[in-house]
């Protein structure tokens, strides 16, 4: 899977990029026909605790799956987005098999 990781208004460190890549690679175990992905990392200027946002966009044949999560850290937001995307991929795969 070809993945593009963008960080908005900051430079993401290599450990964070490796962590995100590891999570995306685990998603391929649930659905192996993911063609490409895009990850956007943002730091929000909100006054709340959850001021880091991670967005996943995965392109699968015939559809685009999207997830956006806020958390205090990028790792926590990535884990939350991973879980949401995992559920979407499993549901998408079930629809293809039952169709």
TrEMBL record:
Position of the signal peptide: none
Pfam families named in the record: Ribosomal_S30AE (PF02482)
Origin: domain of life: Bacteria
Name the UniProt record assigns to this protein: Ribosome-associated translation inhibitor RaiA
């Amino acid at each position: 899977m070809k993945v593009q990781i963008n960080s908005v208004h900051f430079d993401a460190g290599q450990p964070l990029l490796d962590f995100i890549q590891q999570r995306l690679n685990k998603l391929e175990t649930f659905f192996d026909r993911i063609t490409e992905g895009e990850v956007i990392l943002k730091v929000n200027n909100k006054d709340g605790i959850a001021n880091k946002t991670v967005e996943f966009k995965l392109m699968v044949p015939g559809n685009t799956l999207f997830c956006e999560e806020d958390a205090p850290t990028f790792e926590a937001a990535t884990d939350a987005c991973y879980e949401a995307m995992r559920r979407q991929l499993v549901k998408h795969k079930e629809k293809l098999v039952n169709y």
